[in-house]
Specification:
The protein has about 325 residues and is of the alpha/beta class. It has a single domain, classed as Glycosidases (TIM Barrel, Alpha-Beta Barrel), CATH 3.20.20.80. It is built from 13 helices and 10 strands. The strands form 2 sheets. The protein has an 8-stranded parallel barrel with strand order 1-2-3-4-5-6-9-10, surrounded by 4 helices. The protein has a two-stranded antiparallel sheet with strand order 7-8. It is globular, with a radius of gyration of 20 Å. The relative contact order is 0.15.
């Protein structure tokens, strides 16, 4: 038995050293730059005036980066009638203009699956369209968005779909890798200058399929969640080296590929929704201590930039007489 444990210990040490060596191939920066993701529909679901919340987020927090989404159901709510081509200002028009006016760098996410529940933001008119017809409509929407915004200088990258390989989350159809590749090819054809970002789960993926696509890889980083499997709050305790190891594998396969944290948890994990969850329960997954802890782990990964997830909630919490998250973020964005 003693011999077995010695061999097991040796194995663990060897694997640990190997993982550490591989992690050295992951990109790393000494200065982390920060941004956030903003979703107007999500802000509205919290009962907020989304424009007010957005402008306050830009003016008071002063992020260097912002990620915005070209939600299909918002941009083409009527088939063939793109809101931004009708002379009306869409939600995205407003958000891009306000960020551009302030010199903020913008990432625009396009595709059927984009940030925030239910993940796939389908316009109602797609109904039961045959798959090939639906895919052509989706490509037409992507092309319209790219052509409309590609002359906006502050847009620095396009994100194609959001965590497309994460089949276990969201109300979405099964992934077609072939169609995802056709989306990427279309965006690259329309705009050869800007990089394409492909994202994947930081905890539930090995990053191989997603990492070989696009110019920049974007991961998520979550730590404090509610487990539906165990029906309890859960802290995963995954160290930064776990992300760096996977980044190192990508670095070996694709030298020089940039890795960013596109979704850094900075709001509670709830299954009932923020308005239906007590603040006491919200603090179980996102207290101020948890907020600082996850920022520390993210910094240790060395990946940059990092887009925090939850700016709408910080603003909502400020209205609930809990401004501490808003103030903490304000200090973070000064760095």
């Amino acid at each position: 038995m003693l011999k077995f444990f010695k061999r097991l210990l040796l194995f663990v040490i060897v694997v640990g050293i190997l993982a550490w060596v591989i992690s050295l191939f992951a990109p790393k920066t000494s200065k982390i730059e920060y941004g956030f993701t903003f979703s107007a529909p999500y802000a509205q679901s919290l009962g907020l005036d989304w424009k007010e919340a957005y402008i306050a987020s830009l003016d008071e927090l002063k992020p260097k980066y912002v990620r915005l989404s070209a939600y299909w159901d918002k941009e083409e709510s009527e088939q063939g009638n793109f809101l931004f081509l009708t002379g009306q200002s869409s939600q995205l028009d407003f958000q891009i203009k306000e960020a551009s006016d302030r010199g903020i760098k913008i990432v625009v996410a396009v595709g059927r699956r984009l940030p925030r529940w239910p993940e796939c933001h389908d316009p109602s008119w797609i109904g039961d369209l045959p798959e090939t017809v639906l895919q052509n409509k989706q490509l037409s929407y992507i092309e319209a968005v790219i052509r409309h915004y590609q002359n906006t200088q502050n847009i620095i990258a396009w994100q194609v779909e959001n965590e497309p390989f994460l089949s276990s989350f969201g109300i979405c159809p099964p992934l077609s890798k072939e169609f995802l590749d056709s989306e990427i090819a279309l965006v690259k054809k329309l705009d050869i200058l800007r990089p394409i970002i492909i994202t994947d789960s930081g905890e539930l993926s090995f990053w191989i399929d997603s990492g070989i696509r696009g110019d920049v890889f974007g991961t998520t980083l979550y730590r404090f969640v509610f487990s539906d499997v165990f029906n309890k709050y859960w802290t995963n305790h995954i160290p930064a080296v776990f992300y760096r190891f996977k980044g190192g594998v990508l670095g070996l396969l694709h030298p020089g590929k940039q890795i960013a944290i596109m979704e850094l948890q900075a709001e509670p994990w709830t299954t009932a929704g923020i308005p239906n969850t007590s603040i006491e329960d919200q603090f179980k997954t996102m207290s101020l201590e948890n907020f600082q802890t996850i920022l520390k782990i993210a910094k240790e990964t060395g990946f940059s930039p990092q887009y925090l997830w939850g700016v709408e909630w910080w603003y909502w919490m400020k209205q609930q007489n809990h401004p501490e998250f808003w103030e903490a973020a304000k200090e973070l964005y000064k760095k």
